[in-house]
Amino acid sequence: MDVIVLGGGLMGTASAYFLARRGARVTLIERNRIGTGATVASFGNIRRTGRHLPQLPLAHRSLRLWGEAEKMLGRDVEFRATGHIRLIFDEGSLADMRAYAEAARPWGLELQELEPREIRARFPGLGPEAIAASFSPHDGSGNPRLIAPAFVDAARRLGAEIIEQAQVEKVEQTGSGFLIATSKGSFGAACLLNAAGAWGARIAALFGEHVPLEARGPQMGVTEPLPHRVLPVVGIWTRDKDYGAYLRQVERGNIVFGGAAERVAANLDPGHAVADPMRLPVQLRAVARLLPAIANVAVIRTWSGCEGYVRDMLPVIGRSATTPGLFHAFGFSGHGFQLGPGVGEAMAELITTGRSETPLEAFAIDRFN
Ligand SMILES: Cc1cc2nc3c(=O)[nH]c(=O)nc-3n(C[C@H](O)[C@H](O)[C@H](O)COP(=O)(O)OP(=O)(O)OC[C@H]3O[C@@H](n4cnc5c(N)ncnc54)[C@H](O)[C@@H]3O)c2cc1C
Question: Which of 268, 346, 359, 329 is nearest to 65 (CA)?
Fold first, then answer.
């Protein structure tokens, strides 16, 4: 079977790898460099807590693959199952956390509830005013710079053809499949996977499928390196978006943070999202509630990335509703990093066998009709 994958972010590269592993003849076409879209900008959170419940089977599948990534790809992509703690500062948020934990249990996610005493003993320095926390011990983080190149190199070793920096001039259906005309030549295949991230709705529209998607850029920052003390990924349960921050400390010592600041609007052309320094003070106030020691630390870099947010904040994953042989995996709405390996494996399975063992109905493209 021949498959063209359009887009070389985490979704496209993971799909190319799993397709090649299943014996498909794969050509991946990326208009820039591999992994330089939303994927490289990611915070790197490999988190299941708080996910839309029907997404949990895919998230569990993906977490298993993150755990196997080093062996599977032959390279350390810095996946660390450090655990994910979410601090709670008010009774309303505690009720929200308990309701979510109860609802998520039948979906296979077990959250521990921590009391203030346990938070202080296990995670000194975090949220001194917290009244409780949830803890998910098997979640963690990975390195957003490493994962797409690792998947693409592994796919290449299995025979996939990787075309980078190719301007895509035409995408069309032919009698026998699809033809993609690019600045680096024309490519044909029986199947086409649209993994074009924030640009995916444009590709879908070429086939008469309309997805309400907006491109926006979450605001991220990183501090100077400090001794490595904060082990888990840290977040918050809150109804107040001005406090919805998160952070993690990488093993080299820098603290990466995000959230709490409104996402900037991004233009798909040229597709760069720029961090707004005016939003940094609000963000740092929220981060300091989680980790007061950050008040004395220098922020050395801020950034953003162009991500596709679908109206219902869920991705589009599955087969096209209009065009046989066309498949979609785009619009990951700010939470695709965790899902990437699972999406790649599920898409490869769907494309090569006609079905996926993980339910994908909740993400069907025709849900907006
Ligand atoms: C700042 C930031 C922080 C984030 N933090 C997290 C997090 O902590 N945890 C989490 O789970 N998720 C997070 N996310 C979301 C996550 O990074 C994305 O959902 C995920 O990386 C999307 O991968 P993708 O492959 O769909 O998109 P991308 O990585 O954007 O890849 C799409 C690729 O398609 C290419 N392309 C577009 N159009 C065409 C075309 N016509 N032809 C060829 N190529 C094309 C683009 O150049 C791009 O490289 C974050 C996102 C951002 C921006």
Answer: 346
